[in-house]
Amino acid sequence: MARNCIVVNLDRCTGCFGCEVACKMENGVALGERWSKVFTVGPVGEYPDMTRYALPTMCQQCENAPCVSVCPTGASYRDANGVVLVDKEKCIGCKYCMMACPYGVRSWNVAEKCAEKCTLCGHLTSQDKLPACVKSCAAGARFYGDLDDPNSDVSKELAKYSEGDIHTLQDVGNAPATRYIMTSMIGQWQDRIAPADHPHTAAYPVAE
Amino acid sequence: MEIQWSLVLFTALSGAGAWLVACAGLDAFKGLAKKAVVPAVIAGIVLIVVGGIASATHLSHVDRIMAVLAHPAPGIFLEALLLGIDVVVAAAFLVLYKRNASEGVLKGLGIAAVVMAAVFSYACGSSYMMSSQLAWNTIALPLGYLGTALAAGTALWYLLCAVFKEEAAALSFAATEVLIGAVAALVTSLAYGFMAGVTGGDSAVLFWVGVVVCGGVVPLACGVFGMKKTDGALPLAVVAVAGAFIGSVAFRMLMWIASIALMSLFGVGI
Fold first, then answer.
1. Domain count, chain B
2. For a surface tag, which of A116, A155, A197, B169 has the fewest beta carbons within 10 Å of its beta carbon?
């Protein structure tokens, strides 16, 4: 089964929020809701060894997706292309998928009263087009494709870097497919930052 | 995370109902209670059903609930299945008890009721064990669900025995059951509190006063007194029920209040 996902090259990302806007525009995501969000991680460290980088986030297309396994109706499912999706017609609104998502990257559609999330723009990729966030990325930092296909855009981009420069969000057994490329040129990859220790930074929120 | 009252009431009521039925079923072995068995089983069924209905009120599309049947793996399906089985066991016990069925049959159903109560109340908590929720992903959580439900169910049984003026031996044994339930609630709640790190900070009052004192110490004291002295069992039982229910609800409130997401990148509240 294909492992379609987004790869983000943080060495290139300028943190312009263009992907976030493009996602909202393409998918008609309501005000106050989001399928995609760009974080500013840091600054952390001591001068002159400091790190600060933009981190675009969205559904990480986990291989062992907890949202799929907890869904009582099968509304959260993996399609034939291996993409984790939500069938909103089946969603009963129990929000278990939102609790189970390790990254909190699911959204609650207030109008339709159901859970939803990034679809990897399946309506575009099925027509051999790129997801809106990838197409709109002004810095050419975002890539879409199958990790198992050596000729895909994601595999080609990842092949340029050593393993130490390729990261995922913290894996708690869910095996996120999304990869982030970041070299020492930008700084040190941060698995998580406790906001309490860094009150002046917008970091990974760890608690609600 | 916000307290999901529908789910708090579901597991508190249904869990207590299941253990109330279990206590009535257990009496098939002792034969001490004469008048409280039938009302206890009926009350237990009502509590289980009312709890089940309460759980459905947190869904935004209840009309699609039948889709659950097509996807039998997750915790919600398991909870619904166990709830249904528990009601069937309770109803069967009630009918056969009323028809004076053989002792062996009633004992068999009594064992089934105890097993179902344990499995059901544990399963209600195990649904929340998720690697994404740092304060939930411990086996102490479902054990706490089991322990607090056991305390509430046994206290209710003690209350019904007192209301229906059962004999001293029945009251004393019911108080012993309250003691066992209270110890279970106390041990499992403390285990959860320390394992999940919710014994201090903002959760401290709710944990120590609501869960530990009301849910554990109060019914424990009632059980100890009730075992020794069967006169005046009713007020003791009322206090035990009040304490155990406050503790059971407080434990479930604490779970929601103390939840710590691994990450909540979009900051969406639940």
1. 1
2. A197
